[in-house]
Amino acid sequence: MSTEDEKLLKEAKKLPWEDRLTHKNWKVRNDANIDLAALLDSVSDPKDPRLRDFGPLFRKTVADSNAPVQEKALDALIAYLKAADADAGRYAKEVCDAIVGKCLTGRPKTVEKAQMAFMLWVELEAVDVFLDAMEKAIKNKVAKAVVPAIDVMFQALSEFGAKIVPPKRILKMLPELFDHQDQNVRASSKGLTLELCRWIGKEPVKSILFEKMRDTMKKELEAELVNVTGAAKPSRKIRSEQEKEPEQEGPSEVAGSGPPEECVADAPQEIDEYEFIDPVDILTPLEKSGFWDGVKAAKWSERKDAVAELTKLASTKKIAPGDFIEICRTLKKLITDVNIAVAVESVQAIGNLAKGLRSHFSGNSRFLLPVLLEKLKEKKPALIEALIQTLQAMHNSGCLTLADIVEDVKAATKNKVPLVRSLTLNWVTYCIETSNKAIVLKVHKEYVPICMECLNDGTPDVRDAAFSALAAVAKLVGMRPLEKSLEKLDDVRRKKLSEMIGGSGGAPVGTSSVTAQTSGARISSVEASDGSFVRRSAASMLSGKRPVQAAPASKKVGAAKSGVNKKGDAASQLKPPKPVEPEDVEPADMSLEEIESRLGSLIQADTFSQLKSAVWKERLEAIVSFKEQVEAIKELDHSVEILVRLLCAVPGWNEKNVQVQQQVIDVITHIASTASKFPKKCVILCLLGMSERVADIKTRVQAMKCLTTFCEATGPGFIFERLYKIMKDHKNPKVLSEGILWMVSAVDDFGVSHLKLKDLIDFCKDTGLQSSAAATRNATIKLIGALHKFVGPDIKGFLSDIKPALLSALEAEYEKNPYEGSSAVPKKTVKASESSTSVSSGGLDGLPREDISGKITPTLLKGLESPDWKVRLEFIESVNKILEEANRRIQPTGTVELFGALRGRLYDSNKNLVMATLSTVGAVASAMGPAVEKSSKGILSDVLKCLGDNKKHMRESTLTTLDSWLAAVHLDKMVPYVTAALMDAKLGAEGRKDLFDWLSRQLSGLKDFPDGAHLLKPTASAMTDKSADVRKAAEICIGEIVRACGQEVVTKNLKDIHGPALAIVIERLKLQGAFHVPETFESAKAISTGTTSKSSSKVGKSGSTGHGDRIPRHGSRTVSSRVISAKGSRPESIMSVQDITIQSQPLLNVKDSNKDERERLVLRRFKFEEPRLEQIQDLENDLMKYFREDLHRRLLSTDFKKQVDGIEILHKALPSIRKEITEVLDVLLRWFVLRFCESNTSCLLKVLEFLPEIFDALTSEGYIMTESEAAIFLPCLIEKSGHNIEKVREKMRELIKQISHAYSAAKTFPYILEGLRSRNNRTRIECTDLVGFLIDNHGTEIAGQLKSLQIVASLTAERDGEIRKAALNTLATGYKILGDDIWRYVGKLTDAQRSMLDDRFKWKAREMDKRKEGKPGEARAALRRSVRENGSDVAEQSGEIARSASGPILSRENFVHPELHMERHSVPRMIASANGPTDWNEALDIIEYGSPEQSVEGMKVVCHELAQATSDPEGNAMDGIVKDADRLVSCLASKVAKTFDFSLTGASSRSCKYVLNTLMQTFQNKRLAHAVKESTLDSLITELLLWLLDERVPRMDDGSQLLKALNVLMLKILDNAERTSSFVVLINLLRPLDPSRWPSPTSNESFAARNQKFSDLVVKCLIKLTKVLQSTIYDVDLDRILQSIHIYLQELGMEEIRRRAGADDKPLRMVKTVLHELVKLRGTAIKGHLSMVPIDMEPQPIILAYIDLNLQTLAAARMLTPSGPVGQTHWGDSTANNPPPATNSADAQLKQELAAIFKKIGDKQTCTIGLYELYRITQLYPKVDIFAQLQNASEAFRTYIRDGLAQMEKNAAAGRTPSSVPMSTPPPASINLSPKFASLSPVNTNPLNDAKSLNTKVEPMNFSLPPSYVEDERASNAVNPRGTTPDDSEMRQYLSGNDRFPAGVTSGTLDAIRERMKSIQLAASAGNPDPGSRPVMHLNGSLAHGHSNSHVSDSANADNPVQSGVLPMDEKALSGLQARMERLKSGSIEPL
């Protein structure tokens, strides 16, 4: 801060507060607010006079325009409100309004402080002002301001409760928020609604708000209301209440304290929905309903209907008060009505009136009560029930109180009818129970005597009712009031009453008791309410955002679910949802006789009798015989239980002879081990006896073996569970000690996966270690030691509270049994599967984890955010305590919120708290284990930020937390967070140094850690850090990273490393390569033996690293290696010494790989043949040639183990040799085929593990198999897919599916079809299933091959049931996709087969209906419709993308086109129906949206349709095709690029040929070619020309043929397409082409050079069109061609044209040539074709200058005849400046045209065409008098013309053209035409007799373009203003004056054009349909021109003048004219 600022602030401090707070300098205001806040914090007395002075200031300060000042002002306001009392409320309105206006749209912190201020206003009892402000706030147009307003209302309601914050006002605000446009506002309003439900109940909220909501919101809220449980209770008090009870501070204290009365007072039931409902007037509608007439009616039904109407009206929740006396009098009479139905209805009406009127009905209630009580005498159940409900309603509604009814009750209890007495007392009991204590205390003296009197009643029901009433009084007010009365009772009654009072004292009375409800729900309700204000947002009430508040029952369910879902982390205490074992484990009693009868002939009778003998020898002999007989039984399963029961009975477990005992145990052991299922009942029968035998040293060995066998049969978990109780309760201590010793052996044998460890540990603690016998304690210590071996040191946490002596003994035992982790493999397995809960009861180590979600209460979470640091610390410590109680092993359930709260404490202002939090976070991570990764929600990044602290203690705490985290999860999970932290600039030098040091320590214990590569970049950047310490630490760390990652990974990531780090890394790599080779390969061995063989398929697939590594993600730590399995490693090292010497060579040598040559020799067959001897020899040669020596030795070894080693070497190296493998894939696949043909299962399984990895790697590399490689491998794979081992079959099945997805389903399909013909049944079954898979998943790709389904259909006749079943399933899948169309593909079937298929199809349709999958074939039809309607969308979805501009695609490397990377499933499956296209439209769909291979099927259909239509010219087929011609060509044009790109990936060029052939067929037909639009033609021509230029095409399959086809197609398009469009498209293409349209460059040539080549090709096309222009001049629309030339020239601009002068620029020269040719052919009439050129623009269009110059040049060369005066000199002159004679416009043109025609008629060579043209003129302009123009001609000539016109009319009627009917008589020789007609003679006479004219240049202006020009120049359409005229001497001379023009050049004047165009537009706008009124206009050139095949010859002489043409003119000749006329009529051309 500058000295000036300091001075200003110092001066300002002297000013009054108001001046300071409103000072113009924001710093002064800021400082003032800070000082004010500090001052107010020091005010302790709320009556301090200064507070009154400060109050008015805040309305301005909180509205400060400066955000920081505003925030400080809010701080001051908060301090003020904390210091003030309710008196401050006088300022509330102004301040609250200011806050609403200015603070709620500010910064998040500002908004938070504004909310805090509002809460303090509520605390100061300014609630009404607060709600007024909220009403304004929610009307803010900015949604950002509305959400905080709702949130603060939500928080005020949740904290202060509905007593302080009246819900009624909030309810009125909510409806308008429900329809708010902002979703956050709607979510918050829903949350506020849910909070209201907690305070006033769900039903009131529903009734008030639901009708004002949209249906969707109702549904959402209904779903959310399920979660609103329990009642709410305030957690915060207003200031006045706080002063009364200062000792109650926290919500936790309030929750636990307070007498029952307070509970009742605070209960939410007091808040009644009745208060919030608007009253309804029912008297008026009742009058209108005819009630009064109805109740007096004679018919009971009418009376009932009238009362029913009243009941219905009164059922509303709140009735408007009124005069109901008369109604009640009527009802009183009707209660006693003779008809019971009327009486019942009347009683119900009274009940409804009581509910709706409440206190307003009290007088009427007292009036009606006696009658109602009297009516209780009726015995009709309906009436009794109605009376009871009405009486209860009267009391509940407050109409009647206990005091009001005393007299009526006294009278009723004296009624002579016992039922009246008893029911009245029952009603009194209900009233007492539902009243509060105060009322009952007042009136109990009245009621106790009544009840005491009734105790003597003669009716038992009355006495019981009286007892109940007394008991109710006693429960509510205690026994004291009853003591005197009880003295009068006899002992029996006193005892009964005491029992009733005592028995019901503890239990809640029921739903009717408010007290019981309230007190019962008290604690949970407080907890529930706390949850709502943990966060400020109201939206947090919605599910998924709210802290867990479930009731205990639901909590258990949730925990159970989560426990099952977590991998091995379920709590052992949780019971499974249903038992897996359905058997009854408890054995029933069975007598010996029953056993004997059930035993039958199983055992010999004498054996049975001998077993009962008293002589031990006989028993021994019998048991030996029994053993032999049992061993002879083959099927034991059915007899197990009865045999065991027999042995338990005789000789039984009380047998004294040891030998007999041993034999009995042996027999039971044999039965348990032999039987496939040994019932648990049998175990229970034997277990007690067996445990006693274990205690006996003589039978111990056999008994322990038997128990182990039991474990194998039923699982050790069950045995242990049963033994705990037996051993604990047995009197013999040996049973316990020896039983525990057996448990030790069982744990060693079976591990701990089947045990409930918590139960076992509890047994050891509570029974074993507490035993007084030393042997038992020692055995228990051994058992715990055995557990330690499996579960590790975590077990110590469960045994921390035992005696120190035992602890030391346990420590010694732990050392004997060190933790072995995953290498501690169980020796024995369990036959029977136990429940999932017991198997997965713990984590990885099996130890139980406790669910602590119940302890993470909202109170705890709120406490962590308390403003008091001591409270925060206390709650952090409470988290540690929870962890201690859970033995530091917890489940992740419910910890997400805990981590959220702890994250906030990591940014605590109190550093000690931050360190405590770090310690707690580490403890939670350790306790949770690997699951912490998901639950922590990225808290690790917040932990790492603490390293930025400058205090060493803080950083040390952070590193300790990191250590704890690392112990829980692997380092690879932490790498992303560490990487981000290292890149964080805020971390600071010390923090980065410490983090690098920590990383170095951790990496030093790791090997093969590919994830470490992510650390290279940040570590490398730290090498240039300013701090030397950081640089040094980073240097050490990078060395460790290089060592841990390995050479391959680091080499791949060298691009990320720059600067000094790069040199260090390279040096380390060299050192590593030179000296650490053995170590590297040792680690490779460890990984490959221990992990790759076991878990590569799991770990590798789970997600490779960013560098394509297939090695397991986590490195193998040296401390606790979880990777290397003792079982997995083999003694033989994979890498021998010889290997190490050659390891420096590359694994694959692909330098001389001649893959093309090898593939050429492959025979492409679908059927598999065993490899021949010479093929095997070739393979061996190739392996030796391309594979490193150590590898090919292994691969060619006859020992399968070495072959497996070879595969493992390849597997490990796969990530780094992907590119090389593509070169030798065919060799590798041939070797795999050999392995498939051999029968070694181990090697085969290894191959099948490796193959998916290879295909994954190749796919990620963008490579797909070639057809040759497929032909090598697929036949063998398909044939062997029917392997006899299920596991092998399964792997092969998955591999085929993977290949069909990655390679091509269409190409894989034929191989699978060949498999259907295999001799192996299993192969046929597999292939049938695969056909179904392809139909279901790749329907579109195999659409054209579905005729092969008849092979599948034929299998339904096979004998083998499995094949039939597979075939039926596959066809059912086809039916699902195709619907009934499938019958077209199944071929001829027998009736039996058809019936079978029909049944299966019906079943499939039913299944689809059940699963709601639609009908068979329906999806296909719907999708096809949508394809046609929304083509572009489907194309998008299908993944078809434009040709990529990525790098070059080489001829042989099959890199996948981007379109092939798409998910095949994403292509709409039914685009072209799974059975191939069936009609024209479907064919177009498949061409447009299918893949290149699929589109071939569509093109076949199109070619067929075209051929048919062409062969039948008379039919209508062609008409339909013509309509679709443009779409067809458009589809094909877009498919050209896709098919060529597809072929460039190595695929066949078949699809390319089909596309070109289909285009050729289309353009051979002129009708179709003419139907193609210009835009389509543009894209097609561009695409074809680009591929003609593409250097890659010749290298494609059949590339030369494709080039030839492209050339021929291009010529055909130029011949037959609409010529105008061709000209326009080609002239447009002369501009530089957009770079995005080019394929990726195959060389380094620039786009300019490539554009030059492209332009040259376009010029060639234009030359071809221009050459034949003379004969096709009438086929083209000259106006459009001239327009395109105009646009081209204008875009270039004169400046550019000048720059190109002198250079030979072909595009510009070509345009000028086309223009020259047009001017030459049309002469001055060319000016009549400028309707689309804006000739009046300024400056003038360049084309006008060129036209005039061409006319001048041609006239000078005598190629043009002058025909009149020059006319205007300026094209731009308007008609106003040079008004021509009115008759000189249309008439002059007409005369000119007719003169030319008459001249033709005068010449015998052109007389026919002249007459035809004249006939056309008469047809077009019937009102023109031709003969008026022939006044000077001879009569003979006029007659000739008349006859000729008549002949032409006949010819036209007959459909003949002039060329076919030549005129027989030539015209008269002499025609006397007037001079004016002669002068009008147009261009047709071109005498070339002047020799000089031959030397005249054809191009008068040869401006040339330079080779390169700005590519985006054509984007600018502005014409250069300086380019008005060509800067050329000849052009200047031409434009300088009129006298320089040769005479007669411009006979078709600009004025004539203007006049004609204006008149035509006027006619069009006037809507004149008369064609005769239209002026004659040149729109397609002068009609005097004909066609001629003879071209203009430069060497022609004067004797043979060249005519412009004499070709016959057909209907098309005037099409251009008519088109332009229409265009002018429609006004599409701008008026001049």
Over all CA atoms, what is the radius of gyration? 51 Å
Major beta sheet, strand line-up:
1-2
Total number of β-strand segments? Answer: 2
**Structural class, please?**
mainly alpha
Q: Give the overall silhouette.
A: extended
| Biggest sheet features | 2 strands, antiparallel
- Distinct helical segment count: 96
Please report which band the strand proportion falls in: under 5%, 5-15%, 15-25%, 25-35%, 35-45% or over 45%: under 5%
As residue ranges, the low-confidence spans are 247-270, 505-535, 545-582, 834-845, 1074-1139, 1430-1476, 1761-1785, 1859-1866, 1869-1950, 1966-2020, 2027-2032
The helix content is 55-70%
Measured between the Cα atoms of the first and last residue, the distance is 72 Å
Mean pLDDT: 74
What do you see in this structure?
The protein has 2032 residues and is mostly helical. It is built from 96 helices and two strands. It has a two-stranded antiparallel ribbon with strand order 1-2. It is extended.
Please give the structural blueprint.
Blueprint: H1 3-12, H2 17-21, H3 26-42, H4 49-54, H5 58-61, H6 67-83, H7 92-102, H8 108-123, H9 127-137, H10 143-160, H11 167-178, H12 183-200, H13 202-209, H14 215-225, H15 239-244, H16 251-256, H17 260-266, H18 283-288, H19 291-295, H20 300-314, H21 325-335, H22 340-357, H23 362-374, H24 381-396, H25 406-413, H26 418-433, H27 437-454, H28 460-477, H29 483-487, H30 491-505, H31 514-520, H32 522-532, H33 552-565, H34 592-599, H35 605-611, H36 616-632, H37 640-652, H38 658-674, H39 680-695, H40 700-714, H41 716-729, H42 733-750, H43 757-768, H44 774-791, H45 804-816, H46 836-839, H47 858-863, H48 869-885, H49 895-905, H50 911-928, H51 932-935, H52 939-945, H53 952-968, H54 971-983, H55 989-1003, E1 1006-1007, H56 1016-1022, H57 1028-1045, H58 1047-1052, H59 1060-1075, H60 1077-1100, E2 1116-1117, H61 1137-1142, H62 1155-1160, H63 1173-1186, H64 1189-1195, H65 1200-1213, H66 1218-1237, H67 1241-1261, H68 1267-1280, H69 1286-1302, H70 1305-1315, H71 1321-1337, H72 1349-1354, H73 1361-1378, H74 1391-1410, H75 1418-1429, H76 1431-1437, H77 1480-1489, H78 1492-1511, ...
Antiparallel strand pairs: 1-2
Helix pairs in contact: 3-6, 6-8, 7-9, 8-10, 10-12, 11-12, 12-13, 12-14, 20-22, 21-22, 21-23, 22-24, 24-26, 26-28, 27-28, 28-30, 34-37, 35-36, 36-38, 37-38, 37-39, 38-40, 39-40, 39-41, 39-42, 40-41, 41-42, 41-43, 42-44, 44-45, 48-50, 49-50, 50-53, 52-54, 55-57, 56-57, 57-59, 60-65, 60-67, 63-66, ...
